[in-house]
């Protein structure tokens, strides 16, 4: 059949198809819908220890319990959707309630209140201690102290019986859960909560997981609780939920496990409708109905398969593979998706008073969620086509990374033209606001600057060699290093990063469109589009020299001078004039320590002109850690212009380097 004949007869075919499919669709509507064969609803599960039963003859305890439950709806907002409360001195009642992180304050309190009412009036009306686990929250009370106390009983476990895991999958699940356990137990901005994913490439299946302890637990107790759960949970399944009063973890290989309405709860299917009473058909009529349904079902399935094949073939012919790759990247990170309205309210409708800064791809705003958690929201520019690429790149990369020296992506929002990235909020902002400010730089004494240098080095080492996904950042600079409350560094902004699926991230690659910031860019990358891990090493070296000197990379010692910061530092170091290099505030407070001199030496090694002459980040970290280590002598840095007599051959490079702080984005997908 030719294309034209198919087109001209299309209406008749469609009518015939509809007649065949109709009984099939009618049948399908009456079937229950579930996820991988199991409906992931958490049944309301309560526990009432028999040893704690009371006939409520103790009037004081009963009154205290009723007062506690009635006070829940009026509680003030609490961070992490966690509430602990108590009523009474004599016959004291203590209680704990916690909700899923994405619930609003009102929804959270309503969930806890309804669970508490159900527990105290229906499930355990005559107990002095009880516990209930609902789908989106947990509530427990006791006549004994429970705040900060580890409790692993009772246990609720739900598993996906239809989703067995291979031996390699079990190993990857264990690796993922243990990594998240350490993050959750250590605290962090999400305190006692962590989420992530890992991919088993052989069956091409991604496992998504969340782990959580109640925020009142110590790091040790949280670790112990989750370890207890890992040991006692059913092994060999790629779908499981495990709960106890003090902690829980959840694992699934299906993205719908995390749902579309919130980032942690599944898009739970509704219960199948009650069958409508019908009159019993005659035997002959019943047999005919079965035949019609069977024929219609088979024909309908055949039509659907043919249609899908046709659509997929047409997609390939139109060359849309690049768009498909981008869509898949977004799907891989859907567990982090947040609602636009929630972010709009959190940032006070993106008011100028909440704006923290603005870059080439949009502004960054401070926000506060209903739970009280502070966030930083990067709103990509609506006018810039570059924003889509940046958005897809950053979500797909950062969601997979877990390291103390990398900023954590808490969520994202993709709503129409809106592209939002939600990060941890750091009130100390970025490094450039300190080292380039004559007043604030005095806050950074040498110990803190050294802490920042080493932290950035470890973060880059993780990206280059230790993470599951090998990454070249391509935009390491002072404004992309954020500082937490203890002034520990966090590398941010992965919009220009490159991810490699191979185990050789050090392999040199080329690009026709250079992305990065002039002044931090390695010469082979700025001039030829050639990049490797040594590109980040060069940027790190420039950053080290900026931290030590307190001067920007395009700084020059005098008007008309042909030297920029790396060249000036190398010239001063070679001539033994180190005092010319170091920030005066460091000299006044600590002098020229061996540690400071070693950092200058390492910085110069990193900015050498030839990429092969620069050390790897692994070597740099070893240099920092070693107490006795002979460093090689650094060669002339890139873009060193030397004396005026030899300047003519380099004048083009010099003019290029005056464009500091200009960002150019690569638009092509990787």
From TrEMBL:
ATP binds at residue 378. Keywords: ATP-binding, Glycoprotein, Kinase, Membrane, Nucleotide-binding, Phosphoprotein, Receptor, Repeat, Serine/threonine-protein kinase, Signal, Transferase, Transmembrane, Transmembrane helix. Its main location: membrane. One of its GO terms (cellular component) is plasma membrane. Residues 43-146, 151-256 form the Gnk2-homologous domain. It is a single-pass membrane protein. InterPro entries: GNK2 (IPR002902), GNK2_sf (IPR038408), Kinase-like_dom_sf (IPR011009), Prot_kinase_dom (IPR000719), Protein_kinase_ATP_BS (IPR017441), Ser-Thr/Tyr_kinase_cat_dom (IPR001245), Ser/Thr_kinase_AS (IPR008271). It comes from the Eukaryota. The chain crosses the membrane at residues 290-310. SUPFAM superfamilies: Protein kinase-like (PK-like). Residues 1-28 form the signal peptide. GO terms for biological process: response to abscisic acid. One of its GO terms (molecular function) is ATP binding. CDD domains: Gnk2-like, STKc_IRAK. Pfam families: PK_Tyr_Ser-Thr, Stress-antifung. PROSITE patterns: GNK2 (PS51473), PROTEIN_KINASE_ATP (PS00107), PROTEIN_KINASE_DOM (PS50011), PROTEIN_KINASE_ST (PS00108). Residues 350-639 form the Protein kinase domain. It is found in: Membrane. This is Uncharacterized protein.
